[in-house]
Write a structure and sequence with these properties.
Blueprint: E1 12-15, E2 22-26, E3 31-36, H1 43-54, H2 56-70, H3 74-79, H4 81-95
Antiparallel strand pairs: 1-2, 2-3
Helix pairs in contact: 2-4
């Protein structure tokens, strides 16, 4: 269940010269993928948002790996049916093209 439509990870983030503004990028490639800045956010919130966005490829990979493993065990599937449905929705949401 691997989706590779996005820019491959790892991603990182750097603080820009603009106060409280962060760029999400591929380390060493100078490829800006996005930015984290929110008017009204604290500096800590902007940094946390950048960190979360930069972790997206690894988070998706881990979630897909866990879902694949869960599908191998029928009892676990039954026990965590609601959580698995939510995880599948999150995967679909994070991998669909706009």
């Amino acid at each position: 269940m691997k989706h590779l439509n996005h820019t491959p990870g790892p991603w990182g983030y750097t603080k820009t010269q603009t106060p409280d503004w962060y760029q999400i990028e591929q380390p060493g490639k100078h490829n800006t993928l996005g930015s984290a800045y929110g008017k009204g956010n604290t500096a800590e919130q902007n940094a946390a948002n950048a960190s979360l966005m930069a972790a997206a490829p690894e988070l998706l990979d881990v979630l897909e790996t866990l879902i694949d493993a869960l599908f191998e065990d029928a009892e676990t599937l039954k026990t965590f049916e609601k959580e698995i449905a939510i995880a599948l929705w999150v995967i679909k949401k994070s991998t669909k093209a706009i």
